[in-house]
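stage 2 :: seqdesign
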């Protein structure tokens, strides 16, 4: 493995048919290394994604009430683990195989009080897990769960540029990634005004950016798939 490596993960497959169309476009173009699949939105048509051959993981989707407090208590932990197991089973039924990794919608898998129990469930199943920051990374690695060394990518349409600052030197040919494995979380898609997503308009921008970068030699040279990097 090189000193630095990049995994490009498209989130939210299954959220909206229009988002799914954009994700499949990115996968066909070879612009993403993995796709995180939601199994809760009653809109999941996995066949176009399966036809691309791209790796897929579970994008855990928990009810908001389980992550509303500062720290999840025993009731929330029990409910979250039950839902996780149900969604793992639903993923395998839809995709035809277990997920290659686990992450969470709105980072629900890293909520205080849930991160440890979810990590232990992932370890039992041999699943790598997305870490959202250094504290979460310590929890995962303390439980023996594989995880990237950092997470980059924007969470809102307004706050940051579509291209993360960590990638700008690579794209410009003036530098390289930080050492270790970097995961770029991105949300390609086509706008869907009828969705309830607060990250709707930016999806087209993310898709266009990915398609413009997918053949860039400097990025292709450091890209790895999720399981090859972490499994």
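stage 2 :: out
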């Amino acid at each position: 493995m090189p000193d630095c490596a990049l995994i490009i993960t498209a989130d939210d497959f299954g959220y909206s048919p229009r988002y799914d169309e954009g994700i499949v476009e990115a996968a066909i173009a070879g612009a993403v290394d993995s796709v995180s699949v939601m199994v809760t939105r009653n809109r999941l048509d996995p066949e176009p994604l399966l036809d691309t051959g791209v790796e897929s993981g579970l994008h855990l989707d928990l009810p908001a009430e389980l992550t509303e407090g500062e720290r999840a208590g025993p009731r929330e932990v029990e409910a979250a683990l039950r839902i996780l197991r149900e969604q793992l089973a639903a993923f395998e039924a839809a995709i035809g195989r277990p997920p290659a990794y686990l992450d969470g919608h709105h980072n629900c898998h890293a909520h205080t009080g849930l991160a440890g129990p979810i990590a232990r469930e992932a370890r039992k199943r041999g699943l790598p897990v997305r870490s959202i920051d250094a504290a979460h990374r310590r929890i995962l690695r303390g439980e023996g769960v594989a995880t990237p060394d950092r997470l980059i990518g924007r969470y809102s349409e307004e706050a940051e540029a579509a291209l993360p600052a960590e990638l700008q030197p690579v794209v410009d040919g003036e530098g390289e990634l930080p050492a270790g494995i970097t995961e770029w979380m991105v949300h390609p898609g086509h706008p869907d005004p009828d969705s309830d997503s607060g990250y709707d308009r930016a999806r087209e921008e993310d898709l266009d950016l990915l398609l413009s970068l997918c053949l860039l030699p400097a990025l292709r040279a450091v890209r790895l798939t999720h399981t090859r990097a972490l499994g």
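stage 3 :: structure notes
- The chain has one domain: 4-230.
- The radius of gyration is 17 Å.
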